[in-house]
Amino acid sequence: MSSAGFDRAELGAMLVGLRPKLHRYAARMAGSAIEGEDIVQETVVKALAAYDGGALVERPEQWLFRIAHNAAQDHLRRSQRERSRITEADMTMIEDLSASAERRLAAAASLRSFMRLTPAQRSAVILVDVLGLSLQETCEVTGATLAATKAALHRGRTELKAMAALPEDMAMPKLDPEEERRLRRYVDLFNARDFDGVRRLIAEDVQVDVVNRARLNGKKEASTYFGNYDRLGDWALSLGFVDGQPAILIRDPQADDTVRGFVLVDWCGEEVVRIRDFRHAPYCVVDADILPVPSERA
Known about the structure:
Elements: H1 8-30, H2 33-52, H3 60-78, H4 100-108, H5 111-115, H6 119-130, H7 135-142, H8 146-164, H9 177-191, H10 195-201, E1 202-210, E2 214-217, H11 218-231, E3 236-242, E4 245-252, E5 258-268, E6 271-277, H12 282-287, E7 290-292
Parallel strand pairs: 1-6
Antiparallel strand pairs: 1-2, 3-4, 3-7, 4-5, 5-6
């Protein structure tokens, strides 16, 4: 046992169990299911490092959300999305309006809607109305005062209500012709189960991240990844966008072509240098803004 009061195996199990909930918070803070997963991975690394360093932990779940909150804040600063923080003036007497209507509104709001809130408003609304934390627990996670938390929650809810009345911007992003050509070639080979052809596309030092499962380095290890797909029959690939990024959608032909995951592919010239496969991270699919390319619609 460490000074944390629980062993490393228990921490690992907690991280697995909380991962969807942590992602729900991180994705809404970042405005992207993909970037939310990056924040979750950073949270896992930092939590394990803190544990190994003998961190004192009284409330493990709040502690993990505090790490995720700080990781999200760092991410926002790195992305230069930080907005001005709200003041606490005259907000100490605001009532907690955690009614079911607010909770339904926050749960249904798109990731893009959350990005229109300040980080403080975003964090308060997500923690209270989406994840169900109390005001006191939210203060513990964010480090903000009760007055500031109430102010952020009130103003965030007000902004979301105003945005709910506005039409969503559903303009379809467009694929760059070269990007589309490369992706279609990859998808066509995959759907034909021509995995030898797919292997010819990947670089010798390719990196494969099967999110929430494994990381593979190099062409030899990547063969395991392709071999696993070759043994399965519950998938078909098509082109689309995930959070505005070109992506390959993993559909389940046995379930009305439901999108069950997605893949991001990075190229260097005509070679694939990185693959990120979200098939085993269903919580990312739930939070992602997924659009099929029109010609690919079922």
